[in-house]
Structure formats: C-alpha cells, structure tokens
Write a structure and sequence with these properties.
It is a single chain. With 482 residues, this protein is mainly alpha-helical. Helix content is 76%, strand content 2%. A two-stranded antiparallel sheet has the order 1-2. A two-stranded antiparallel ribbon has the order 3-4. A hairpin with a 2-residue loop joins strand 1 and strand 2.
Length: 482
C-alpha cells in the first residue's frame, strides 16, 4: 500500500473525530447546518448591523484609501494600502474561486449563487472589523517591521477588557492553529491542485508529468521560498503585480465567455433567483456554499477566520480604520465578482449545452470544461491561471503561518528559517501525494479558529467604532479644507 494511503488510513479516525466536533450539525430548513457556519454568518450579520451597513457605504471610501488618497508615507508599517490588499487577496483568490464554486453548484444548483453573493456581502463587515483590530493592536518590532493578526488583538484586546490570561491563552491557540492550518489548506492542497492541473494538460495519468508531482512541488517550493524569505515587503512587491494580472486575466476571460452566450444570461439569472428560495435551493445554499464553499474553498470568503488581518496589519498608517475599509473590498472582489463570474461561466454553459452538468467532472475540471465548450484551447490558459492562483495563495499563507510561528517561539532569524524550510518541504509533499485525512484535519482546525476570533471581534466592537470615528473625522476635515 502506498505511503499516503497508509497515512490516510491511520489519520482518518482522528480526522473524522475532529471534523464531527468542529462541524457539529443541527437540522433546520430542510438541511443540516454546522454550528460553526451559523456562527460565522451570525457574526457577519451582527457586524453589518452594528456598523450600519458599512459593507455598502464604506466601499467608495475604501476605494479612495486604496488609491492612495489618504496615504501616510512616514507612518509606521511596511507596505502601502494597495499592497496590503493584494497580499491578502493573493491568499483568498485561489483554487476555490475556480473549483469551489463548481462544487457548490453541483451540490445545490443555481440557487447557491444567490447565497454565495449574500455571504460575500455580509463578510465585508466582518473583514472590516478584524483588519481594523489587526492594525490597532499590531506589534512594532525593533527592526521596523510589524507583526499583527488575531493572536495579537485577542491577547491585547481581551487584556484591556480585564481578562489577560484568557486573551493570552486564546492568542496562543490561534497562533498554533494558523501554523498547522497553513500547512494543509494553504500549502499541500494548493500544491496538489497545481500538480493535478499541470498533469491534466500534459497528457493526464499517462502524460509526461505522471508520477513526477514531486518535481512540480520542488519547482513551486523554490519559487515560494525565494519570495517568502524576503519578508512581507518582498511578498507585497510580488503580489501587487501578480494579483492584478491574474485577476484581470481571469475576469476578462470569464466575461468574454458569458457575453458570448448572452442569449441565455437572462434565464440563468432567473433560475439563480427562483431556485435560491426553493427548499432545495436553500439547502444547497447552506450546504453547497457555506460548507463546501467555505470548507474547501475558504479563501473565497475568509471573513471571520482572521487570517487576512495578518497581511493587512503590515500597512503604513496611523489610522487603523483605513485598513479596515480597504479590507472590506476583499470579499467583494474575490466572492461577489470572481466567484460570481465563475458561476455564470458554468451556468451559461449548462444552459447552452444540454447534459453538461450530468458529466462526472468536478471542481476545476468542470470550470475548465465550461470554458472549453466555447474555446477548445481554454483549458491551457485556465490551468496557468489556476497555477498562479495556487502559487499566490501559498505565498500569502506562508506569511500567515510565519507570523503565528514567531508569535509562539519569538522573532529570531533562526526560527523564521526553520519555519520557511518546513513550509517549502510540505509543498513538495503536497504535490507528490494526496493526504485527504490530513487536509480534513487542517480544514477543521482553521474553521475552529473562527469561534474565539468572532467572539473577540464582538467584544472589541466598541474599540473599532472609536477607530472608525477617528478616521471619519479626518475625512471630514479633508473635505472642509478643499
């Protein structure tokens, strides 16, 4: 029996036990809802109401901040608002945006798209809160760099509320969880999917790369290692070019395909709306988007997990709320725009090609085949885009895991080198073998982190309001001096 199958057999009982606890389900509205998903959605709804729909009115202001209108070159931090956004997006715009949407639609039909968009819009408020707190409680290191994220705002924020021991314990738990989680969904899964895509376009199981997944992993490890060793500044310099290019390329390709089938757009939109409110649509929306979509493609809307706040914390600013406003654009771009376009690619193709949804294709393969129906050569550029998505995700999650690691063991250079070496080794492992049980454990652990994280966000909501009022005063002053 191959090594990965033996390891999966050993680890599967542990994976089943952990996932059954983390994703404990209650039956309602004709579907089984994991309580952790309900917790995420309830938290997002709470923040939407608490900040008076900042998901909508904050978007134009966030665009102005991202464009540099309120830049402070001499402010503490390491990267610009735009670079912070692209670094975070590199972690959220990944394989899930191409394959996760296809899985969700296959599970619940067109109606899941409505619930996916709703989840994206609500998640914008959560992202605003956690990234504002990330900057508010970040730690400034002697070398001028910064370290932030949930482990810091949970520790320091709860200490301000009079429970320092609880804050320290939860901060440490989060840091440990993000280190372990990043090796799974932010590393091995991405490397595995990248290798699968390259093998698919080079002849499949009998092609040139068959049996050489480790070679793909080795190349990816060298690329990722070269970037992450330079720290967040190097990561930002790569992502502020890579993310716009790959994002724009995919969006334009998806738009071209959808518009080429313009005669079926209206019936597709009608089906999305009507099937969202049928019992099957609601069940599909809950299970297909908020379980399958969030669990396997968590990067399509990671609001509530807290990981993106680690990247946003490195921004140059004296006003934490500026980065919260920038961050709320993340779910809007990667879920409301990119994932919706992926859904329309699949659904317009299904409307035009009878029987398309009845095939055995899953995930990225389904999306790729949808493109191929209009452009036969499309699978090749889609594979390249998927590869870039995987690389960018690994780069971002390498940084997230590093900050969790240094929170636990210290900021020493030796500790950072050890972590980077281990992370790159796991890339090779992930590309060479598939460890389903290990990935299930890492998925469950990452979702478990949202429980203390969202609780901390709720408790620290008054702090976020103070930071928001402070920055809005700056905005009003800038208007009055024009």
């Amino acid at each position: 029996m191959p090594f990965d199958e033996r390891l999966d057999r050993i680890a599967q009982p542990a994976a089943d036990a952990i996932t059954s606890v983390v994703f404990y389900k209650v039956h309602a509205f004709g579907a089984d809802w994991p309580l952790v998903v309900v917790w995420l959605v309830a938290g997002a709804a709470f923040f939407t109401l608490a900040f008076l729909g900042i998901n909508l009115w904050g978007l134009p202001l966030g665009l102005r901040v991202t464009a540099g209108q309120f830049d402070e070159p001499d402010a503490p931090g390491e990267i610009t608002h735009f670079q912070a956004l692209t670094t975070a997006l590199s972690g959220t715009v990944g394989i899930g945006n191409i394959g996760g949407v296809a899985v969700a639609i296959a599970a619940g039909g067109p109606g899941v798209v409505f619930w996916m968009v709703l989840a994206g819009v609500l998640g914008m408020a959560t992202k605003f809160v956690e990234c504002t707190l990330g900057v508010r409680y970040r730690e400034h290191l002697p070398d001028g760099s910064v370290s932030g994220g949930p482990m810091h705002y949970l520790e320091k924020g709860l200490a301000e509320l009079g429970v320092p021991r609880l804050g320290k314990a939860i901060g440490g738990f989060y840091a440990l969880g993000i280190v372990i989680g990043c090796l799974g969904i932010g590393n091995m899964f991405q490397a595995n999917q990248a290798a699968v895509q390259l093998q698919a376009i080079t002849g499949g199981p009998q092609g040139a790369l068959a049996g050489y997944g480790w070679v793909v992993g080795l190349v990816l490890a060298v690329i990722v290692g070269a970037v992450i060793l330079g720290g967040v500044k190097t990561i930002a310099k790569v992502t502020d070019k890579l993310v716009p290019v790959m994002g724009t390329t995919y969006i334009l390709a998806a738009l071209a395909l959808v518009l080429s089938q313009h005669e079926v757009i209206q019936p597709v939109l009608v089906r999305i709306w009507t099937e969202a409110f049928t019992p099957e649509g609601i069940a599909g929306g809950g299970v297909g988007v908020m379980i399958i979509g969030f669990q396997r493609a968590v990067f399509s809307n990671e609001a509530g997990i807290g990981s993106a706040s680690i990247a946003h914390s490195a921004v140059k600013t004296n006003h934490p709320a500026t980065e919260g406003l920038v961050a709320l654009m993340g779910p809007f771009f990667d879920t409301v725009i990119v994932c919706t376009l992926t859904a329309l690619v699949i659904l317009t193709t299904a409307e035009s090609v009878p029987g398309f949804m009845d095939t055995d294709l899953e995930g990225v393969a389904m999306t790729s085949q949808a493109f191929a129906q209009t452009a036969p050569s499309a699978p090749y550029p889609i594979a390249v885009v998927a590869l870039l998505f995987a690389v960018s995700t690994m780069i971002a999650w390498a940084y997230y895991g590093l900050k969790g690691w240094t929170y636990l063991v210290g900021e020493g250079k030796r500790a950072q080198q050890i972590y980077s070496a281990v992370f790159c080794l796991f890339i090779v492992v992930g590309a060479a073998i598939k460890l389903d049980a290990v990935l299930e454990i890492s998925d469950a652990l990452v979702f478990l982190l949202c429980v203390p994280n969202v609780l901390g966000l709720i408790l620290l909501t008054p702090t976020v309001w103070r930071e928001l009022r402070s920055f809005l005063a700056v905005v009003r002053e800038a208007r009055s001096t024009r």
